[in-house]
Design a protein that fits this description.
Elements lengths: L10 H23 L8 H10 L8 H14 L7 H22 L12 H6 L19 H8 L6 H5 L5 E4 L14 E11 L10 E7 L2 E7 L4 H7 L5 E11 L2 E5 L2 E4 L12 E4 L8 H15 L9 H7 L4 H9 L7 H5 L4 H27 L10 H9 L6 H15 L5 E6 L5 H14 L3 E5 L3 H14 L7 E4 L5 H13 L4 E4 L13 E6 L7 H8 L6 E6 L5 H7 L4 E5 L9 E7 L3 H13 L3 E5 L7 H18 L5 E4 L5 H12 L5 E4 L12 E6 L7 H8 L9 E7 L4 H12 L3 H12 L1 H5 L18 H17 L9 H8 L3 H6 L4
Parallel strand pairs: 4-6, 9-14, 9-15, 10-12, 10-13, 11-12, 13-14, 16-21, 17-19, 17-20, 18-19, 20-21
Antiparallel strand pairs: 1-8, 2-3, 2-5, 3-4, 5-6, 5-7
Helix pairs in contact: 1-2, 1-4, 3-4, 11-13, 13-28, 14-16, 15-16
Length: 819
């Protein structure tokens, strides 16, 4: 008999039911209700659980609350998102009330007394998973504001960390403020903007003491609150990063508070944590709430990290670390705290790395243990290929090919990342390895991120493989229905040996007879899920992932941490270096001279206009305007236009025309970023280069310098500020894609490089892939060692670790495609 696990016919049984009910609700509220639309069946799950509850033995108030809960789930799927949010929060509040009522002892005591609750359902840490409303000072209104920031449970509040620390031990004079560092001082408001101004000009408050003057500025939110709360003559204290603007000291978006001189109320001799703003909660109240949570609940936190690991890493335990951040020691180094270099921060950063690495190590164990196909070394097709190939392989190509062939011959499935700068010749390596797979009687698939790129691969590869014995075919989304069906059939019958395509390859209808090898080009444009989906179309396929976006080591270890890595670190002979220059827009005449000279010498020119994220239409008009401008600037020069919204045939026609030299200039939106190969093009002009990421510019630059001529890359930059030009100057200094990527990572964070911005969630909250690289290396080593000893984390001493991975960490790992 397998009825519901716990018939709620008594208190203890019902108490056990409550966490079950809570879990789906908390999941739905998490992430600021992110993914609410994707969550289905929540109401059914709750209603199903409620059925296991037998109300008769309970007093009316409890029965009513359960009934109310059921009511909230009534017609839930039809509710608007806003309504859903409200209902979920109400449901959570109801559960809290029920828990308080049902728990023995707790009934009569204040909610912060948790002993009684603790013993009943989750013997150990249950209170940590309760609603923040159990924390002193948190009512329904504050709870709702906290929930909007992902803080739902008591535990979430403990992990809600200060964004900055204010050193109250040295509140100084204005004259002592130092440019470039965080400082704090007190003074009197001498002047302020009249009413908040939105738009370009900041809202300003000028503060003065007997030593000097500083301007506090707000560019957006916050201005209104400040103007409402303060007036000229008020004594204030403030802190923030000091900068210089027009010969004056300035702090942008400072922390400002009234200086009431009440030292007892605001003890001066301490380091004060400042938390991220929560709407409608004053900073002081927020700090008090967090401290109440720390006092009542922090001792319940159990450190999941095995002691041996902590010792190996030389890091403090979790409770100590959290305490040190919420209540910094009198002697703490404020700079370390503010820069995330304190031992406490490092501990939290380590956890983030460690959990990701553990998940990667486990995944790797999983694939390594799978049985795959051991290919035989066969070189017939390759030999025929070489006869067609006009060059010899570079040493790097030879080395990498050897690595891949060794993997293919092994019975373990290959999972390899091939990194190589633009033009390093990855395609050839991919094709040669695919030929060996085909010769072993299996099929191969190459997936590219755009149609243009897939088509280009198809053209070059089918030309190179035109020696008989290999059938190559193209599959993209906009193939006509009948054509598509025909290709599907030929894939399924095994007639096609190597299929090249876009996302169209992972569609349901595509079935292989014997898929053995999956190659993903420009992997950073795909999610891991797509790679796995394609590979899943064959039994234990070997998998090669290629990327021309050099990924900094730290990032590669995180995102591709379960892959082996091959690197093509050599460009084929005869490539000329590319002269790169950053120019202000008004320096165009200089650039134009080079453009004209090159065109006269028979070369061709790309002009790239930026992607305007909000609107593809604007991109198009930007590109069209550029064409008009160039028609005037360069009369009698044939100019082509290529943008993402053109129909495929049209794109194809323009590209082919450019390749054949019909156009001297090709104006394009960043659709040409990946892949196009026109050896005769020698000039790359990027308009509004300041809007591009460095790695993206590096890709664009890779479109020239592909032939035997010297090439140029001009990065045209609008005069928005010196930083933009400084950032772009990296492009002048180096052509090393790895260095450029490191800089990109420092400046723009990992989301931009990985194209994961749309998830809106940073991979790491505490860890920094640039600052904490050595910590990452250590975490990786410790995690991989641990998984080697205990692959399933089945040992008793790893039980907490496993629970953490399956609980708090699961959603985040999913976000970056692991787990
Ligand atoms: P990637 O995909 O790494 O950017 P490709 O594979 O597209 O580079 O190769 C870039 C260009 O270099 C192509 O025109 C290709 O034919 C050429 N190429 C590849 N390998 C060699 C080689 N060993 N010698 C000379 N040219 C090569
Ligand atoms: Mg390529």
């Amino acid at each position: 008999m397998s009825g519901p696990p716990s018939k709620g016919s008594d208190r203890a049984g019902t108490l056990k039911l409550l966490p079950e009910l809570r879990r789906p609700l908390v999941l739905a509220v998490r992430n600021n209700f992110g993914g609410l639309e994707r969550i289905t069946g929540l109401d059914r799950r709750i209603l199903h659980l409620l059925k296991t509850f037998q109300p008769d033995s309970f007093p009316k108030p409890i029965r009513e609350r359960f009934a109310k809960l059921a009511e909230l789930m009534n017609d839930y799927p039809a509710a608007t998102v806003d309504e859903k949010r409200k209902r979920l929060l109400s449901a959570l509040a109801l559960l809290d009330a029920l828990e308080a009522k049902l728990a023995p002892k707790a009934e009569s005591e204040s909610v912060s007394s948790t002993e009684g609750l603790r013993e009943v359902a989750y013997p150990d840490r249950r209170p940590l998973y309760m609603s923040v409303q159990f924390v002193k000072g948190v009512g329904p209104r504050v709870a709702a504001e906290l929930a909007a920031r992902d803080i739902v449970t008591v535990e979430d509040l403990l992990y809600f960390l200060p964004r900055r620390f204010e050193d109250r031990r040295r509140v100084g004079r204005i004259a002592d403020l130092q440019v470039g560092v965080v400082g704090q001082a007190r003074g009197v408001i001498a002047a302020m903007s009249s009413g908040p101004r939105f738009g370009r000009r900041p809202f300003e408050v000028v503060v003065q003491d007997d030593s000097g003057v500083v301007t506090l500025s707000w560019f957006h939110y916050g201005a209104q609150a400040v103007s409402a709360r303060y007036k000229v003559g008020d004594p204030v204290r403030f802190s923030g990063k000091v900068s210089h603007f027009r010969n004056r000291l300035q702090i942008v978006h400072p922390d400002l508070s009234p200086d009431n001189g009440d030292e007892a109320d605001e003890p001066d001799r301490s380091i004060r944590p400042l938390y991220p703003d929560i709407k409608g909660v004053t900073t002081r109240r927020l700090a008090a709430i967090v401290l109440a949570a720390v006092d009542a609940y922090l001792p319940l936190v159990r450190d999941p990290m095995p002691e041996a690991i902590l010792r190996g890493a030389g890091l403090p335990d979790l409770v100590t670390a959290l305490e040190a951040l919420h209540r910094p020691a009198e002697s703490a180094e404020v700079d370390h705290l503010n820069e995330g270099r304190s031992a406490a921060h490092q501990r939290l950063a380590f956890d983030e790395f460690f959990f990701v690495q553990t998940a990667l190590a486990q995944r790797r164990e999983g694939t390594v243990r799978q049985a795959g196909f051991a290919h035989e070394r066969k070189t017939d097709l390759a030999t025929r290929f070489y006869k067609r190939f006009p060059h010899t392989l570079t040493d790097a190509q030879r080395r990498v090919l050897k690595e891949i062939v060794a993997d293919l011959m092994d019975s373990k499935p290959m999972n390899r990342l091939l990194q190589g700068d633009v033009g390093s010749g990855k395609t050839i390596v991919a094709v040669l390895s695919a030929l060996m797979v085909v010769e072993n009687g299996r099929q191969a698939a190459l997936m590219a991120p755009t149609e243009i790129l897939a088509e280009q691969h198809f053209r070059t590869i089918s030309a190179l493989c035109d020696f008989g014995g290999v059938t190559v075919e193209l599959l993209t989304a906009d193939l006509g229905r009948a054509d598509k069906r025909a290709v599907y059939e030929r894939i399924e019958s095994g007639e096609i040996d190597l299929v090249i395509g876009t996302h169209a390859l992972i569609q349901k209808g595509v079935r292989f007879k014997n898929l053995g090898y999956v190659i993903v080009d420009e992997q950073h444009r795909f999610g891991v899920r797509q790679r796995v989906m394609l590979a899943g179309k064959g039994p234990a396929s070997d998998c090669l992932v290629m990327t021309a976006t050099p990924i900094p080591r730290s990032l590669a270890m995180t995102v591709y941490g379960d892959l082996d890595v091959s690197i093509l670190d050599e460009l084929p002979q005869g490539r000329r270096p590319i002269v790169t220059q950053v120019h202000w827009i008004n320096e165009w005449p200089q650039v134009k001279t080079v453009v004209q000279t090159e065109i006269r010498a028979g070369r061709q020119v790309y002009v790239i206009t930026p992607l305007i994220r909000e609107s593809e239409k604007l991109d198009v008009s930007g590109a069209e305007e550029e064409v008009e401008r160039l028609r005037v600037e360069l009369p009698d020069t044939p100019i082509g236009l290529l943008h993402g919204r053109m129909p495929r045939d049209e794109k194809e026609r323009v590209m082919r025309a450019f390749l054949e030299g019909v156009y001297d200039v090709l104006v394009a939106t960043s659709v040409v970023e990946v892949g196009i190969d026109v050896p005769n093009a020698t000039v790359m002009v990027v308009q509004h280069a300041e809007r591009f990421g460095l790695s993206q510019l590096h890709q664009l630059r890779g479109r020239v310098g592909r032939g035997e001529h010297s090439s140029y890359c001009f990065l045209m930059c609008e005069k928005v500020g010196e930083e933009a030009r400084e950032r772009l100057s990296v492009m002048e200094e180096t052509t090393d894609g790895f260095r450029i990527a490191e800089r990109d990572l420092e400046i723009r964070g990992p989301g931009d490089i990985l194209g994961t911005r749309q998830t809106g969630s940073p991979i790491f909250q505490h860890a920094n892939l640039v600052r904490d690289q050595s910590l990452l290396v250590l975490a990786r080593k410790l995690a991989f060692d641990l998984v080697a000893r205990d692959p399933d984390l089945g040992l008793a001493e790893h039980a907490d670790l496993r629970r953490e991975l399956e609980g708090r960490w699961r959603e985040r790992l999913k976000l970056i495609g692991i787990g």
